[in-house]
Design brief:
- 2 copies of one chain form a homodimer.
- Chain A is an alpha/beta fold.
- The first copy, chain A, folds into 2 domains: 172 residues, Rossmann fold (3-Layer(aba) Sandwich), CATH 3.40.50; 76 residues, 6-phosphogluconate dehydrogenase C-terminal fold (Orthogonal Bundle), CATH 1.10.3660.
- In chain A, helix 4 links the parallel strand 4 and strand 5.
- Chain A starts with a strand and ends in a 5-residue tail after the last helix.
- The interface between A and B is large, with 91 and 91 residues.
Chain lengths: 288, 288
């Protein structure tokens, strides 16, 4: 089934970028944007991200073949349940949230029977420390990974439609469970963010004065939007605590190696991680 | 006093970049490079980093007005003491090491009376995860900060000469004690490096598969050369342990805020750090 009408609920950085990519790659698809702020919606129309804008949620989703929830993690469940009475039969719903267990569980508990199995959790692994439609761009998503988190309840055709959508806008897709997703992103995304914040918080006036590129890059994530990350951290707190526990073990091991008697071991350990970093870039075909 | 002859001991990434910058900005200065490997030295001559190359340490430093030790931290003291018998009267010596207490103390304990006060510790705050002359470039240093670490024993004219040298190649300079330097870089440089390593070591196969730009950037430092960083970590182990202690406190505070009842506090905390990051870039006139 082709997607002839796409509804994007929330046109900030991510919703706006999805919209731009859809306009670029899905020629015959009409893109509708919904939001609270008319100036944001106007800007989304002006930059060609959406064909039409509305602040009326029912109107936004009415004829949509695919609805994409692009609100912050803390507002997803509420947004999902408010569209049930307004979508057409056969509509498929997905989201772009950074955590997946809570929204997928909410969908499975609350979807009306006509929509059963038609919610598919998605997480495009792309972002920026800059928020808002002004920073949206199609190539934020192109070439990046989108994680789909189906469950046994997910309808195969809906999963297929959502998968085809992300691939149509040039993303790679993989499918894992919501639980495996939340554990993996706790390590790959939420822990790095927390570390970036803690590292910046540890600095002194003098250390900030002398800082070079290393600290600047390592604290980039700390510039992220506070409410967005607060919601993500709280929603994935259990996995984030586990990830922190693992990191603390690695820090303890490294600290124990700060001993001239263990110099060789420390060198080998650093070497093995440098090799792991090279392999990580190789697998992505990135320049070292 | 002008520097008409500059001797750079070690022509890797840092020595090579200093040489290229000196050639670019100090027209009448003859640059001599010393190293163990003739292929590295040949390459340094070929790319125009040095006028002449030698594997003979005595010949390398004989007529130099300024000698720059550009060897790894673990070899600096040994290199320093091996040139004493060969430098001319009036020669000034500096280095580019990432730690300053040990080399400055070694200089003050071992400099012969003719050279007393003529060693000035320097730390150009620039680098790369790539090592070797192939990655050397003048603009690695241009616009970056060079920290000078004089002590009461440092001769003012020597300090002035070294300061003028770094400014001549377009670096900014500041002067702090070796002790303050080592504490500050433990926070601004060595701790970020250790974190980058520990963060990468905490990943699983799946988390690496799903990782986006955040983890890629946060693990860049882990690609650094193992022996170089092993030596830095061991030489500054006490300060690095203190920095780690501070970081652990920040991580504990953040973990305690992973609680819906403290959502507002967590948001405010994240917000304050995002603001701190913006201020950090503003002070450097960098784009956010």
């Amino acid at each position: 089934m082709p997607i002839s009408r796409l509804s994007i609920l929330g046109v900030g950085l991510m919703g706006g970028s999805v919209a731009l990519a859809a306009r670029k790659h899905l020629n015959s698809c009409r893109v509708v944007g919904y939001g609270h702020h008319t100036d944001t919606l106007d800007q989304a129309v002006r930059i060609g991200a959406i064909h039409e804008a509305t602040t009326d949620l029912a109107a936004a989703v009415k004829d949509a073949d695919l609805v994409i929830l692009a609100a912050p993690v803390g507002q997803l469940t509420q947004l999902l349940t408010s569209i049930f009475g307004h979508v057409k039969q056969g509509c498929v719903i997905t989201d772009v949230g950074s955590t997946k267990r809570s929204i997928v569980a909410a969908a499975e508990q609350s979807l009306p029977s006509a929509l059963r199995g038609r919610f598919v959790g998605s997480h495009p692994m792309a972002g920026s420390e800059h928020a808002g439609i002004a920073h949206a761009r199609a190539d934020l998503l192109e070439g990046a990974l989108c994680i789909l988190t189906p469950t046994p309840q997910t309808e195969p055709q809906s999963l297929d439609l959502v998968d085809r959508f992300w691939r149509a806008i040039q993303m790679h897709t993989i499918r894992i469970s919501p639980e495996a997703h939340d554990r993996a992103v706790a390590l790959a995304s939420h822990l790095p963010h927390l570390l970036s914040v803690a590292l910046l918080a540890s600095q002194t006036d003098l250390s900030l004065d002398v800082a070079g590129r290393g600290l600047i890059d390592m604290t980039r994530l700390a510039a992220g939007e506070a409410t967005v990350w607060r919601d993500i951290f709280l929603d994935n707190a259990d996995n984030l605590r586990d990830a922190l526990g693992l990191l603390r073990q690695k820090l303890d091991s490294l600290e124990a190696m700060l001993d001239p008697a263990r110099a060789e071991e420390l060198k080998d350990y650093l070497n093995s991680l440098a090799t792991a970093r090279h392999r990580m870039l190789d697998q992505r075909n990135l320049e070292p």
